[in-house]
Structures
1.
Amino acid sequence: MARKKRRFEQAGPAVPNEQAEKPRYQDPFQAAVTNRIEDAGKAFEGKGRTILYGVGALVVLGIIIAVFVQWNNRSQAAAQTALGKGIEIMQAQVTDVPPLAGSTEKTYKTQRERAEAAIAEFERVAGEFGGATGEKAKYFAAVNRLHVDREMAVSELEAMAGGSGEVATLATFAAAQARADAGQFDKAAEHYRKLSTGDGKIIPLDVIKLELGKTLEKQGNKDEAVNIFFELAKTASEAKDKEGKSIPLSAAALEAKDKVKELAPEKAKEIPEPDPAAAGLPFGF
C-alpha cells in the first residue's frame, strides 16, 4: 500500500574539517544516503529491502547504512575503509547468475554465503582496530549472523543493547525485530518499551511506538495497541510548523492512523484531519 512507504528522520553530523581532505571510503549507497534514515530507505527501495519493519538481517540494513555514513564521517581513514569493505559485502548481490565478463562485482549464491563473508570481514576489523570501531564491527557482524545462527546473533545483540549510545540503540531495535519475527512478542515489546523512553535521535520515536503497537496487537493486547496507535496518529495530526500550518504525517503516523481505523473505527473519528491547503501538500500524498 502506498501509505506504508517508510520514511524516517535522522540528522547526521557535519564532516570534521580535519578529515575533509583525507582519502575517504564511499560505499555505493553513500551518494544516495544523506543525513536522514528516510533517504537510506529510498536508496534500497525496489531492492528487496524491508527497512526497519522487516525481519532477519535486512531488518536494520537501511538504518545501519545511514549510521555507517555518520560513523564514516568521524572515523580515521583506515577504519573507514575497513568497515566499508564489510558494508560492500553486505550490499553485494545474491544471485546464481555469474557477473558479466570483465566485471569486478562480487556476488554470492545465497544470503548465508554473503552473511558468512561479511561476518568474517567485520570480525577481522574488530580484531584489528578494537575500541569504538571494533564495537561497530561487532554490531555489524551480529546483524549478519541473523542469517547464519539466529540464536547466537540475538544473544550478541542483546548483550550490546545493555550498553549506551548508537550501537546499543541499534542493537536493541535489531533484537526487538528478531524477537518479534520469532513470535517472542513479550521480549520484543520489552525492547521497544525501552527504546520508547529514549530521545529518538537514532531511531525516530514514532517508528518505535508504531512497532510497539504492532507487537502488542500480535500479543493480543489490542486495547493498549489501539491507544498507542491513536496517540501517535492524533499527536502527528495536530502538529503545526512555525507558521501554524499542519505538518504532513510521517509514514509511521499514517500507518498508525490506518491501524486505528481498522481496530477501532469509532475512536479513529477523534483524530483530526490535517488541512491539506495549510500543509502546502495534497492530503493523502
2.
Amino acid sequence: MSLSPKLHIEKIDSGSLFRAPTYRLEQSQLIHRAPEEVFAFFSDAFNLEKMTPGFLNFKILTDPPIPFEEGQLIDYQIRLYGFPMRWRTRLESILINEKFVDSQIRGPYAQWHHTHHFEAQENGTLMRDIVLYRVRFGILGRIAHPLFVRKSLDSIFTHRYKVIQEVFEEN
C-alpha cells in the first residue's frame, strides 16, 4: 500500500498469536547529488536529528564524535505518544558510498532492521530505505499497527523525505 510519495509498507509474514507479523517498509528517493555526497550526509548520525519530526522529541544521547564504523552503538531518546523511550542501534555493516545497515538492539520495536542503499544514477543518487520491523505485544501489536504504528511511520518517513529534498536543494 502506498502511503506517501514512494513509501510502501507490506506484511511479509503472518506472525502468531504471541508474535506480531513482520512488515517491510520501502521508500525510494532520487537525490540530484553524487552518491559520495549523499552517503556522507547519512553517515553523520547527528543528521538523523534533522530528519526526524519534532513530535518524536528525538535526541541522540551518544557523545560526539560518533565513529561511522561497523559495530558502533548509538543511543537515542524519543517520546512516543507522550512516553519517553530509549532506543539503541548498532551499525551492522557498511559498504562505503553504496549501503549501510543498522539494527535496533533496544527500543520500541520487537525488530527494526534498516538497510540504506545508495545507487548511482545518471542524474544523481537513488536512495532506497528498506526496513524490516515487527511491533511488540503480540495481538495488541497487531491491533496497534494499523491504528498507530503505520500512521506514525508514514508521518516520519514523509517528513524525512521532505527534509532530504530541502537539504540537498540548498547545497
3.
Amino acid sequence: MNATAVLTPMAQDTYWGSFEEISKYNVQLNYFEKMWLAWYTWMGNDILATGIMSFVMHESFYFGRGLPWYIIDCIPYFRKYKIQQNKIPSNWEQFQCALLVLLSHFTVELPQIWLFHPMCQYFGLQTTVPFPSVWKMAYQIAIFFILEDAWHYWMHRAMHAIPFLYKNIHKIHHQYSAPFGIAAEYASPIEVMVLGFGTVGCPILWCAVTKDLHILTMYAWIVLRVWQAVDAHSGYEFPWSLHHFFPVWAGAEHHDVHHEKFIGNYASSFRWWDYCLDTEAGAEASKKRREKKLAKARKAQ
C-alpha cells in the first residue's frame, strides 16, 4: 500500500500487532486510519485486502439492515404500518429469499469484487490514508445518489417497456408483489449487473473524470445505497418516514406501489423522474391523469 507521508512498518504476525507498530510511527493518523493502514499492512496483498473488506462490508450491511425488517414483520403491533396489510411474508418465504440472495452474492458478486482493487488502481481511486474530509464525502455521495437514480430510472423503465427484458430478466424480481427488506437484491444476475452499474459505475466514472475519489467514500456510498434499497422494499410506511420531511425522496411507499401494480415508479431514490415524465403509479397519480384529461377535453370543446 502506497501512502504519502505515512510510515508502513513490516507486517506483524497478528493484525493488532501491525496496528501497534503503525501507531508508534504514525501518531498523526486517527484511530480508524491506523486500523485501515494496519489491515492493508497485515494482509500484505492489496487485492485480497480490498476484496475481503468489500465483500464482508456488503454482506454485513445488507443482511444487517434486512434483519430489523424481518423482526418488524414478526411483531403484530407494526401491521398497521404495513402498506399491503393482507400480504405478510411467511418465515419460509423470507428464509428462501435470503438463501437465494446469498447464493447470488457468492456466485455473481464475489467474483466481480476481486476485480475491484485493480479497477480502483486503473482509474485512480485512492485507497491510502489519511481519509478525505466528511464534507468532501458528503457532496460526492449526494452526486452519486443523483447519478444512480437517473441510471436506475431509465434501465428499470426499459426492463418494463421491452417485453423480452421483462420476461427474461426483470420478472424474477417481481416474484413478490408485496416486497420485504431482504428481497431488495433478489434478482437475476443480469439485472444485478445492469442496475448495479449505477451504484459502482457512476462513482468510477466520476473518479475517471475528476481523479478525486477515495475508496472510503465509495464504501460509505454503497452502504447508504444498500440501506436505501432494503428500506424501499421493506413494505412499511411510517409517520416518520423520510419522504414526509424530504418530499422528493422515494422510499417504501413509492416502490411498494410499483411491486403491487407492476408498472410506474421506476426511480430508486427520488421521485422527480417519475413526476416529470408522468410515470407515477398509484391511485392518486391515476386520479391526477384523469383530471388532466378532463381539463383538456373541456378546453377542446
